[in-house]
Amino acid sequence: MIEIEGVTKIYGEGKSAFHALDDVSVTIRENEFFTLLGPSGCGKTTLLRTIAGFVDPTRGAIRLAGKSLLESPPHKRPVNTVFQSYALFPHMTVAQNIAFGLEMQGKPRVEVKETVARMLELVRMTPMADRQTGQISGGQQQRVALARALAPRPEVLLLDEPLSALDFKLRKDMQLELKRLQAETGITFIFVTHDQEEALTMSDRIAVMNAGRIRQIGSPREIYDQPAERFVADFIGDTNFVEIELLETEGETAGIRLPSGRETRARSGAEARPGKATLAVRPEHARLVPPEEALMAGTLAEIVYFGTDTHYHVALDSGARFVIRQQNAPHHRQTHATGDRVGVSFAPGVGQVLRD
Amino acid sequence: MARTFDIRKQTGFTALAITCFAVLYMPIVLLVVYSFNAGSSIAIWEGFSFRWYATAWDNDQVQAATIRSLVIACCASGIATFAAVLAALATTRTKPWKGQTLAFAMVNQPLMVPEIVTAVALLIFFAMIKVSTGYTGLGYLILAHSAFCIPFAYLPVRARLQGMDLTLEQAASDLYATPFQIFRRITLPQLFPGILAGAMLAFVISLDDVVITEFVKSAGQDTLPTYMLGQLRRVVTPEINAISTVLLAISVVMVIAFFFLSRVRK
């Protein structure tokens, strides 16, 4: 278990001071695939580097299994990193790279050899053991970097956007491979990415970060279905934002009034108060209906065909835009045309009232 | 597509280039050619022979000067490279510190101060030491050569260090390597081509030096270049050409090696 408590990193002083990390607290469980997700510059890599020991936080505490990490230099932390650039040692072979951490730990030669062989097996690189790192492909380098970091059996593996340099297909394969490795080794993974899809498919839990702060922590489903605030809803997937009036709350749901005057229910945080608010509705959670059955009516402004689904852009009478995504059926015939009067509807409890 | 400016297509470019190369290389080619002259003139061709190479080889003074030159060049390039590596590490692998630019300038002082000034200064300085200690050995020349060779060793090492991926060292430290192990196992092997290149450059620079050597050397301490300078005051034979040609060959080989080393694994 790794506890991060009130970690703050300030670069510079006075007016030019920049909070790379602003009072970040999170507890990562044993064996968890935990993802730090956010746009570039949000502090996710800085947080990773404070755990590795390359950045000293200005304030705060980091504990691993109850013991503080901050007093130890990087080479004394039982934590290994997979670097974004892989950082393989160019003057060593694949096997020598993987052996490096074990040798530095002073492991007996026989054990080093065995572990290297096992690691090569694990990442399916056994035939490449004696290659120079410059002679293997990007995906293979990635796997060597993984094996090198896993070989000393760290308590936590830190992964800094390890898949960003790979092409799409390879990235998909490596995502599955990483999940498999995590399951097989039982090591806690802390994974940094700016790719929301990657985060959703791989993680046990996700922390969404922005401007040095953690905005929301939750399972992929929670983050996607119940974004706490506009930034999270906007960053993860596509979302329609509707300005609404919150009428009353009851537990986790709230009665709301849409701009069209119609009323429905939506999910909300317990702290929501009556008054003006923003409702987030995922495009795939809404349906295109005849205007008379609709929660909100408008004209169809655009139809965009995406293969697996079609996006309908509706210009609502309130002036806002609303996008509906519908899956394409095999023999689907296009029954709508731009300019048509249409309605937008979604089931009660589907929308999420955001914290401002 | 707009045609880019191609200087090679400009009028007179070819003629100018040929003139420049001719001025650069003709004298050297002539020098090499006349080193094989059978006669004893450096300007009148009398036939092909290795005579002057044999003469130079058998000349005790040339032999002594050659050995002296090599001893000095080896020692000086070794010392200069060692100092240059330390200087390069201190000016690139540390947090920026006050006076870093000044240190950089001071390391490279020999490139800026006129050589003749350094030579005179060393002459006076060493004369004082000679008087007080009585030591008159090769040490003075080795020290002087070490000093002016440092920037030539420093610059390639520093370039190599700057081009080196810092995350490699971080990765090593992440993998439980202590700072010394990082230096030994990661930094030094990465740096090695730069160090070798720097040492070779320093060696060639030392081998070639006339001005400082001429001022600093004690009696009977001629190096190959100062011996040749001395010979020019007497009858000039193609022996000088032969020695020059050998020096030229050594330099060319070293510089080519330097060039390839600087490009290794970049």
TrEMBL record, chain A:
<dbReference type="InterPro" id="IPR003593">
    <property type="entry name" value="AAA+_ATPase"/>
</dbReference>
<dbReference type="InterPro" id="IPR050093">
    <property type="entry name" value="ABC_SmlMolc_Importer"/>
</dbReference>
<dbReference type="GO" id="GO:0015594">
    <property type="term" value="F:ABC-type putrescine transporter activity"/>
</dbReference>
<keyword id="KW-0813">Transport</keyword>
<comment type="subunit">
    <text>The complex is composed of two ATP-binding proteins (PotA), two transmembrane proteins (PotB and PotC) and a solute-binding protein (PotD).</text>
</comment>
<dbReference type="Pfam" id="PF00005">
    <property type="entry name" value="ABC_tran"/>
</dbReference>
<dbReference type="InterPro" id="IPR017879">
    <property type="entry name" value="PotA_ATP-bd"/>
</dbReference>
<keyword id="KW-1278">Translocase</keyword>
<keyword id="KW-1003">Cell membrane</keyword>
<dbReference type="GO" id="GO:0016887">
    <property type="term" value="F:ATP hydrolysis activity"/>
</dbReference>
<dbReference type="InterPro" id="IPR013611">
    <property type="entry name" value="Transp-assoc_OB_typ2"/>
</dbReference>
<keyword id="KW-0547">Nucleotide-binding</keyword>
<comment type="similarity">
    <text>Belongs to the ABC transporter superfamily. Spermidine/putrescine importer (TC 3.A.1.11.1) family.</text>
</comment>
<comment type="function">
    <text>Part of the ABC transporter complex PotABCD involved in spermidine/putrescine import. Responsible for energy coupling to the transport system.</text>
</comment>
<dbReference type="InterPro" id="IPR017871">
    <property type="entry name" value="ABC_transporter-like_CS"/>
</dbReference>
<dbReference type="InterPro" id="IPR003439">
    <property type="entry name" value="ABC_transporter-like_ATP-bd"/>
</dbReference>
<protein>
    <recommendedName>
        <fullName>Spermidine/putrescine import ATP-binding protein PotA</fullName>
        <ecNumber>7.6.2.11</ecNumber>
    </recommendedName>
</protein>
<feature type="domain" description="ABC transporter">
    <location>
        <begin position="2"/>
        <end position="236"/>
    </location>
</feature>
<dbReference type="GO" id="GO:0005524">
    <property type="term" value="F:ATP binding"/>
</dbReference>
<dbReference type="InterPro" id="IPR005893">
    <property type="entry name" value="PotA-like"/>
</dbReference>
<dbReference type="InterPro" id="IPR027417">
    <property type="entry name" value="P-loop_NTPase"/>
</dbReference>
<dbReference type="InterPro" id="IPR008995">
    <property type="entry name" value="Mo/tungstate-bd_C_term_dom"/>
</dbReference>
Automatic annotation (TrEMBL), chain B:
<feature type="transmembrane region" description="Helical">
    <location>
        <begin position="12"/>
        <end position="36"/>
    </location>
</feature>
<keyword id="KW-0997">Cell inner membrane</keyword>
<dbReference type="InterPro" id="IPR035906">
    <property type="entry name" value="MetI-like_sf"/>
</dbReference>
<dbReference type="Pfam" id="PF00528">
    <property type="entry name" value="BPD_transp_1"/>
</dbReference>
<comment type="similarity">
    <text>Belongs to the binding-protein-dependent transport system permease family. CysTW subfamily.</text>
</comment>
<dbReference type="GO" id="GO:0005886">
    <property type="term" value="C:plasma membrane"/>
</dbReference>
<dbReference type="InterPro" id="IPR051789">
    <property type="entry name" value="Bact_Polyamine_Transport"/>
</dbReference>
<keyword id="KW-1003">Cell membrane</keyword>
<protein>
    <recommendedName>
        <fullName>Spermidine/putrescine transport system permease protein PotC</fullName>
    </recommendedName>
</protein>
<feature type="transmembrane region" description="Helical">
    <location>
        <begin position="240"/>
        <end position="261"/>
    </location>
</feature>
<keyword id="KW-0812">Transmembrane</keyword>
<keyword id="KW-0813">Transport</keyword>
<feature type="transmembrane region" description="Helical">
    <location>
        <begin position="191"/>
        <end position="207"/>
    </location>
</feature>
<keyword id="KW-0472">Membrane</keyword>
<feature type="transmembrane region" description="Helical">
    <location>
        <begin position="67"/>
        <end position="90"/>
    </location>
</feature>
<comment type="function">
    <text>Required for the activity of the bacterial periplasmic transport system of putrescine and spermidine.</text>
</comment>
<keyword id="KW-1133">Transmembrane helix</keyword>
<dbReference type="GO" id="GO:0055085">
    <property type="term" value="P:transmembrane transport"/>
</dbReference>
<feature type="transmembrane region" description="Helical">
    <location>
        <begin position="135"/>
        <end position="155"/>
    </location>
</feature>
<feature type="transmembrane region" description="Helical">
    <location>
        <begin position="111"/>
        <end position="129"/>
    </location>
</feature>
<dbReference type="InterPro" id="IPR000515">
    <property type="entry name" value="MetI-like"/>
</dbReference>
<feature type="domain" description="ABC transmembrane type-1">
    <location>
        <begin position="66"/>
        <end position="258"/>
    </location>
</feature>
